[in-house]
């Protein structure tokens, strides 16, 4: 139970659960757009000796009933059929209707991989619901574009939505924060009509940039009106402006929504050096953003997401893991299997980029005012 003196959250250091096993890492390594990334992330966390400071949880594939909490059985049937070896032509036609083409090719075994990743996010959510941990981490998760009956943006099963639905069985109000460079459209769509889950996404929003949704007018509907918050940004976002915007908006969100649990997608494709070449963020921007949320001392689920510069993504999520553990890490990357990827500086943190900042202060002020008006004045 939680009322024992020495068990009070503010007295003991926070309990961090880290969900992984070799099978999950091996399957995640197969994902086409981020081949090998799961191993690189996990190896860096292990090389800094952080595994021994966390409660390690071994996941298993999500139960079909958990996946069907969100996704349609028609979509999941098609994903399973296309994932099996048998190249039954019948399913190829349906593939189109379920988004299983172009960005989301259904390669053999994709269903097992997506189920395992979802099972890891479910295990992490259950660790929080059972008060086994204060923070739970699944760096292989965070696939925010997947829709109820459609794969999208390299995402096949929306592990985030499933995890939030699991948390909702215990917590009345859940806050979702999306720090990825791209709009968290799949999670926003899932919860746009409910006042029990507030979704807040910080992302690049520009003509022709994927997925194209997430303007600040996008604020939910019906009972869910004003429970969707979007912070659309332009290229060149720097640490200082990003972190102060995150703190300002989440501060208002926390005061008005009063969540009992938080899920944060920590996509690292906004870092300088990412092939998406958009923002100028250093690892500090994401570490400071997550630290602000951690300070609320609410049950917190941390998930991965985008991040196509593998070494920088590993640096970012290792630095976040150390930050929630309150562990100070030496800046020199330890010798380990992937050490060569970290050249030429072999340092843990990255620096900011110097792309022209297209974000006008007036625009950022307007976005903040729009959020305040909706959340504090409901207008
Ligand atoms: C499908 N697309 C997505 C979808 C989701 C993401 C993402 O990271 N979401 O969080 C990124 C690109 S997309 O059309 O913008 C691209 C496909 C391939 C892209 C690419 C590939 C290499 C270098 C730069 N960009 S962008
Ligand atoms: Zn992304």
Assign an overall shape.
globular
Bound molecules: ligand NHB, zinc ion
End-to-end distance, in Å?
41 Å
Strand order in space, largest sheet? 2-1-3-8-7-4-5-6
**Low-confidence parts lasting 5 or more residues at pLDDT below 50?**
none
Q: What features would you describe in this structure?
A:
With 379 residues, this protein is α/β, with parallel strands linked by helices. It contains 12 helices and 8 strands. The protein has an 8-stranded parallel β-sheet with strand order 2-1-3-8-7-4-5-6, with helices on both faces. The longest helix is centred in the first third of the chain and has 20 residues, at 110-129. It is globular and about 55 Å long. The ligand CN(c1ccc(C(=O)NO)cc1)S(=O)(=O)c1ccc(-c2ccccn2)s1 is lined by residues 103, 145, 153-154, 180, 182, 210, 267, 269, 275-276, 305-306. Ligand NHB binds next to loops.
What key attributes describe this structure?
single chain, 379 residues, alpha/beta, eight-stranded parallel sheet, 12 helices, 8 strands, 37% helix, 10% strand, binds the ligand CN(c1ccc(C(=O)NO)cc1)S(=O)(=O)c1ccc(-c2ccccn2)s1, binds zinc ion
Outline the secondary-structure elements:
Blueprint (H helix, E strand, L loop, with lengths): L15 E4 L2 H7 L8 H11 L7 E3 L6 H4 L5 H11 L5 H9 L12 H20 L5 E4 L20 H9 L6 E5 L6 H7 L5 E8 L23 E6 L5 H19 L3 E5 L17 H12 L5 E4 L6 H15 L36 H17 L2
Parallel strand pairs: 1-2, 1-3, 3-8, 4-5, 4-7, 5-6, 7-8
The structure holds ligand NHB and zinc ion.
């Amino acid at each position: 139970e939680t009322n024992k003196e020495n068990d009070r959250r503010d007295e003991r250091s926070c309990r961090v659960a880290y969900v992984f096993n070799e099978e999950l890492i091996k399957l995640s390594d197969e994902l086409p757009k981020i081949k090998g990334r799961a191993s690189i992330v996990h190896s860096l966390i292990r090389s800094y000796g952080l595994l021994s400071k966390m409660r390690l949880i071994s996941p298993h594939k999500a139960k079909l009933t958990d996946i069907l909490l969100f996704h349609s059985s028609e979509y999941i049937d098609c994903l399973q059929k296309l994932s099996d070896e048998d190249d039954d032509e019948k399913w190829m036609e349906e593939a189109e209707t379920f988004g299983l083409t172009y960005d989301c090719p259904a390669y053999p075994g994709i269903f097992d991989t997506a189920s395992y990743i979802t099972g890891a996010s479910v295990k992490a959510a259950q660790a929080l619901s059972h008060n086994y941990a204060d923070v739970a981490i699944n760096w292989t998760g965070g696939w925010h574009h997947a829709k109820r009956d459609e794969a999208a943006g390299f995402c096949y099963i929306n592990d985030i939505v499933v995890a939030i639905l699991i948390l909702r069985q215990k917590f009345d109000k859940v806050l979702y924060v999306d720090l990825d460079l791209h709009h968290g459209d799949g999670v926003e769509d899932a919860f746009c009509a409910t006042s029990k889950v507030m979704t807040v996404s910080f992302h690049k929003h520009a003509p022709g940039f994927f997925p194209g949704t997430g303007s600040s007018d996008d604020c939910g509907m019906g009972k869910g009106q004003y429970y969707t918050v979007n912070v659309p940004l332009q290229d060149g976002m720097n640490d200082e402006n990003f972190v102060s915007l995150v703190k300002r908006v989440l501060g208002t969100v926390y005061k008005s929504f009063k969540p009992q649990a938080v899920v944060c997608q920590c996509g690292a494709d906004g870092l300088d050096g990412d092939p998406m070449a958009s923002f100028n963020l250093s690892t500090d921007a994401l570490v400071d953003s997550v630290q602000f949320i951690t300070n609320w001392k609410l049950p917190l689920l941390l998930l991965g997401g985008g991040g196509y510069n593998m070494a920088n993504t590993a640096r970012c999520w290792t630095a976040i893991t150390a930050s929630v553990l309150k562990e100070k890490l030496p800046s020199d990357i330890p010798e380990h299997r992937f050490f060569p990827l970290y050249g030429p500086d072999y340092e843990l943190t990255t620096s900011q980029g110097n792309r022209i900042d297209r974000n006008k202060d007036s625009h950022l002020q307007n976005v903040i005012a729009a959020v305040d008006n909706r959340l504090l004045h409901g207008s």
